Amino acid sequence: MDMIALPDFNAGAMENWGLITYRETAMLYDETSSSVANKQRVAVVVAHELAHQWFGNLVTPKWWDDLWLNEGFASYVEYIGVDHVEPQWRMLDQFVTEEVHDVFKMDALSSSHQISIPVNNPEEISGIFDRISYAKGASIIRMMNHFLTERVFRIGLQRYLRALRYSNAEQSDLWSHLTEAQRLVFGSTQLGANKSKEAQEIIDVERVMNSWTLETGFPLVTLTRTYNSTKSAILSQSKYQPYKQNASKPNGTESNQTVATGSKSSQEPKWEIPISLTWKSEQNWDPKTRLWMHQNDSDQITLSESMIPSSDSDWMLLNVNQVGYYRVNYDLQNWILLIEQLNNDHKQISTINRAQLLDDLFELARSSLIHYKYAMEATKYLHAERDYLPWDSVLIAFSYIDDMLQRTPLYGDWKDYIAHVIEPYYNRYKELDWTTSTGAKTSDGQNRTSMDSNDALEQYNQVNAIGWACQVNEHCVEKAKSIFSNWRRTGKNEITPGLRYTIYCTAIENGNKEDWQFLWKVYEKEQNASERDRILRALGCTKEMWILSQYLEWVFDKTKPIRRQDGAYVFRTIAKNNHGRDIAFNFMRERWQIIKEYYGKTSFTLGNLIRSASASMNTQVELQHLVSFFEANKGDVGTGKRSFMIAIEEVESNILWKNRNYKLLEDWLLNWRTK
After folding, report:
1. DSSP letters spanning 19-67
2. Residues 430-453: tens digit of each pLDDT
3. What's the rounded Cα separation, in Å, for the pair 570 and 520?
4. 328 in helix, strand or coil?
5. Disulfide-capable partner of 189 in 62, 182, 199, 548 (CB 3.0 to 4.6 Å)?
6. Is 524 a catalytic site residue?
7. CA angle 37, 42, 43 (to 5 degrees)
8. Tens digits of per-residue pLDDT, 563-593?
9. Residue 665: phi, psi to the nearest 5?
10. Which of 212, 213, 219 is nearest to 108 (CA)?
C-alpha cells in the first residue's frame, strides 16, 4: 500500500486502491512540533482509508444512496483500528463524544436527512458527504455491533465481504448476511418464538436497521417511574424534535412530575430500539440489550419487576455506555437522584454515562424538556471530575451558551460562573511546564513536570482547561503572553505542541499589531503542515477588526501563501471570533460569486463557510439577513443549498433558545451569586 501527502488537497484523504492520497496534516507527523492530537488525527485518517479498502473498494455500493456503507463503516472501523494499536488513547470511549454527541445536534434538525437517501444529480452527491453519512452511519453500526454481539457481527461482515467482493452491494445485502450469521451462531430460533434456554433470539436485522437508515432523526426514550408503594416504570419513545415543539414550561418548573417528551403526531415515526439499563444498587455496566422497543408497540411499555430497583432512592439509568443511538429523558425525581449521585460520588456512574448524562441534560434543557437549573446543578460536581470525556461534554454545552450570551447583558455573570467552574480544572495544570524546556521550577521550587507524551486524554484535558481558563483567568492570560513574548524575543519556540494554538490565540487576542505581524511572518516561513494550521487559526483571534478584514482579503490574494485548502480555516476562525462574526458574514455576502468560483459549485467548502458564518446568529435581524441572502442566490448555490437550509434552521433554533432560556439562566446565575 502506497500513501502520498499532497500540498494542496481539499479533501482530508482519498482511498484510491493502492495509492491513498492525503492532505499533509492527515499523514505527516513531526515529533518535535506535532501534538498528540495531530498524532491521533494521522492514525485515525490512515485507519479510515485502510478500512475503505474493504468497505468501498473491495465491496462498492451500487449507487450513492448507500454511500453510508462506505463512510459509516470506515468511520467506525477507524476507531477499532486505532484502539488496537494505541489502547491507552481509549478511542472507543472517545467515539461517544466525537461522533454520537456531535451528530445528534445536526440530526435533531428537520433539515437532516435519512442515512440511505435517493440521489439524482451530482450536486446531491456532494451534499451527502456529511456528518449523517459518516458519524450517524458509524453510530448505528456501533449499536448493531452491540445488539448482535461481536462474534455475530464479525462473522456477518466476513460473509458479506466474501460474497460481494469485487462487486456491488445494497444495504439489504448487509442485513441478510448479518441475519444469517445469527442462525450460524445461535441456531434457527426466530425472534419471539418458543425457544429453549440455550437458544438465542434471531433478530430480523433488516426490520430493525431500516427503521434507522430510512427515517430522518432519532428517538427520545423517556422513563417515567412511580414511587412509594406502587413501584413501576414505563418507557415511551418519540421523535426528538427539540426546535419545533411548543414547550411552554420545562420539566421541573412546577410541582408535578409530568415528563415532556419529543414532538408527537399521528404520523410520527417509531424505531426498533435496543434498551440497556442499570440502577444504583445493581450497577451492571455491560451494555447488553435487556429489552426491545418495537415500532408496533403501544405508545408505552411497562418494565418487568426484575428491571426496576426495589428502593425508591435508587436511580435508574438507560443506554449503558450509550451504545444506542438515542437520547434519554427521565421523570424529575430520577433526574434528581442521578444529579445527587454525581455530586456525592460521581465514580459510581461509568465515565461514558457521566458524559452522556451531561450531554442529555444540557440538550434537554436547551430544548425546554427539563429546566436549565438541573443541568447547571449537575456541573457543580466537576471540581472532582478527573476524566476527559465528561469535561468535554460539558464544555461543548458551555461553548453553545457562550456563543448565545456573548452579546447580551448576562455575559459578565456567565463568564464569572465559567471562571468558578474552570478554576479547579485549571489549577491541575497551571504549574505544569507549558514549554519543552528542562529544569524549570514550579512556584514552590519543585521541578516542573510535562504531560506524558502518549497520554492523549490527559493532554486533551490540559488543553481544554488552559484554553478555557485563558478566556476568563488573568493568570492564564499573562502566562500565555509571557511565553509568546519570550519566543518573540529569543526566536526559539519552546511551547509544547499541544498548547501552541491556545498560547498563540491568547497572545494575539490580547496583543498588538506587532504580535500579529510576527506570527504571520512565522507562518510564511513554516513548513510543518500542522503548525501552519495552528498559526492560521490563531491569527483569526485578534480583536482588531481592520486586521480581520485584511486577513479575509488575503485568502483570495494569489500573492499570499494561503493555500486554497486552508482558506476555510481562516474564514471559520474569524466567524467564530465575536469581533469577526459580522465581518465574515458580510464578506461572504459581498464576495459570494468570487468565493463560489474560487472553490467551485460542488465543493464541500461552500457548505462549511455558510454554516460557520451563521453559527452564532440569534436575532431576528440576523435571521432575515441570512434568509435574504439565500433567496437572492438560491438558484445558484450548488452544494451549498442543504447547508443554507441547515443554517437557517440553526439560527431559528438559536432565537428560540434565547426566548425560552435566557431568563431561566439569568435567575439561576443570580441565585448562584447570592449563595
Report:
1. EEEEEGGGT---TTT--HHHHHHHHHHHHHHHHHTTBTTTEEESSGGGT
2. 999 999 854 344 444 444 455 556
3. 13
4. strand
5. 199
6. no
7. 95
8. 998 998 899 999 999 999 999 999 999 999 8
9. -70, -40
10. 219
Does this model's pTM top 0.90? My answer is yes
Residues 606, 584: Cα–Cα separation, whole Å: 13
d(CA 173, CA 157): 10
Q: Are 649 and 109 in contact (CB under 8 A)?
A: yes
Torsion angle, CA of 278/281/282/283, rounded to 10 degrees? 60
DSSP state of 450: P
pLDDT at 362: 98
Task: Name the nearest CA neighbour of 389 among 427, 351, 424.
Answer: 351
Model pLDDT, residue 263:
52
Summarised one tens digit per residue, pLDDT across range 20-72 is 999 999 999 998 899 999 999 999 999 999 999 999 999 999 999 999 999 99
Tell me whether strands 167-169 and 232-239 are parallel, antiparallel or unpaired.
Answer: unpaired
Q: Give the residue among 36, 209, 48, 15 at the shortest CA–CA distance from 135.
A: 48
Q: Flag whether pLDDT at 310 surpasses 50.
A: yes
Contact 369, 247 (CB under 8 A): yes
Neighbours of 621 (CB within 10 A): 8
The owner of cell 427515517 is: 215
Residue 208, C-alpha cell as written in the block: 430493525
Q: What is the pLDDT of residue 578?
A: 96
Q: What residues have CB less than 8 Å from 671, skipping those under 6 apart? A: none
- What cell numbers appear for 400 in the block? 453553545
C-alpha dist (Å) from residue 49 to 23, 72, 604: 12, 12, 19
Cα separation of 636 and 638, whole Å? 6
Could you please report the per-residue DSSP string of 630-667?
HHHHGGG-TTHHHHHHHHHHHHHHHHHHHHHHHHHHHH
Contact 13, 20 (CB under 8 A): yes
Q: In 3D, which of 666, 661, 669, 663 has the Cα closest to residue 243?
A: 661
Distance CA 573, CA 588 (A): 14
Other beta carbons within 10 Å of 21: 18
- In the set 15, 24, 31, 49, the catalytic residue is 49
